[in-house]
Amino acid sequence: MGTLSITGLxxxxxxxxxxxxxxxxxxGAGVSSWTLANAVCKAGQLGxxxxxxxxxxxxxxxxxxxxxxHMRRALSHFPIPGVAQRIIDRYFVxxxxxxxxxxxxxxVPSMKPSKLLxxxxxxSNFVEVYLAKEGHDxxxxxxYLEKIQAPNLPSIFGAMLAGVSxxxxxxxxxxxxxxxxxxxxxxxxxxxxxxxxGTDPGESFSTTFDPHAFCxxxxxxxxRPDFLAIVSSATLASMLARKASGKVxxxxxxxxxxxxxxxPPRGKMQLSVEGEPIYSDRDECDxxxxxxxxxxxxxxxxxxEPERIxxxxxxxxxxxxIGTAFAFCEESGMSPELRNxxxxxxxxxxxxxxxxxxxxxxxxxxxxLGMEQTQSEESVYLERTRICDLGYLRxxxxxxxxxxxxxxxxxxxxxxxxxxxxxxxxxGRKCVCNGLMSNIDLGQIQQDGRLEKxxxxxxxxxxxxxxxxxxxxxxxxxxxxxxxxxxxxxxxxNIRSGSQAVNKL
Length: 505
Description:
The chain is of the alpha/beta class and 505 residues long. The chain has helices at 34-42, 54-63, 70-75, 83-91, 115-133, 152-161, 177-185, 211-214, 234-243, 287-292, 306-314, 324-327, 336-348, 378-383, 413-418, 432-439, 478-485, 489-497, and strands at 4-6, 22-24, 47-50, 140-145, 166-170, 190-194, 196-197, 205-209, 226-231, 250-254, 297-300, 319-322, 353-356, 366-369, 395-398, 404-407, 502-504.
């Protein structure tokens, strides 16, 4: 299946390939794995790996024995001497650790990471992009969350070392990232301001990364990837286009039915009878204003139908971003058991997502798939012993001594209160970090002997992912999704628009 692109499109990309019609979304940590991105790229569309928590993924994949040898194969190509071997020596377990033993801990994200953590961040992002790029010459993207700020600089550098073509970022206002990409491509030191609660007017805190120091003065030549900002409003898109630190190359316009974290509704939060945030016409993005910016954009949130892709293109979009459909295909990093259960629930008409206004420590609404024996069940959530041992979604705050501390609304309540947190912020908060690790069969065994339970995030479209199943099949592939989405799309667009032609290259 080839790439679809609109004839005469005025947009240009750093590579020789046309802009993709379908972008595979950067779903939860490890779900948008290198295996999925690689399959999507080989099918002619843009594969995207999730850049969230790749350091812990690499450490744990090595500890379970590195099945297939993929981590070590990619690490053997890491261009900075000594780094790969130090990581392998620290984490690799021949044959895999005992299943009843916990994973060895790794340093939590911080503003001034240790050498160990910095190397793990750079190398893990390199590995994921390197593997996604194997066996083809098409562009690969990586998705980050602006809310997870502390690891972003070394993470981005690692992805750029591997030749990533697109950096996508949402869950915040990624105003600083385009300029950071410019500086890293020029081998310059970069800094990123960290949001710290309780600072005085004019006071700021930053994290830094120096490529020369990391590479012992011998920084490889790297290219600047295109930057796609994930937004939900034309106002934010316009601000980024005008005031970002460097060039924004395009936008992904994400609606409230998309999976993962959603932008909160505009105005005062109002909940439905079921307890979900209520979105209204005020939350619909002004696509005319987006189009007037003159930059390419893609639409996301329940667009996994040929007719919806055609509709998006008619509205001026280059194409669409699809997440949920790919999240449950065979190549995704999700646990095969959870994936199969989800598809079967969809086939039986029982798959339902709840947009939880408080589950995520970020404060953003977070979509959770209801499933037995996962944290979607109140009883499972309540019996879990609170712990914050991964720390990706912690909040930075200014301590009384003027230094930066870290707290998470999902950590033990007494700990959170001692750090100045408010009790109301802890109600209903779930450990997204540990839940997402369990989603991909890398869950931790905690001190009480319990294995962390999954917390599956998904878009509303999970209710109907069974439509991708072929007759008699119980699972589907990334190619099945793409073939379904691109079936007769040329005719669909020509019939609906009467003018826009689409080439299948």
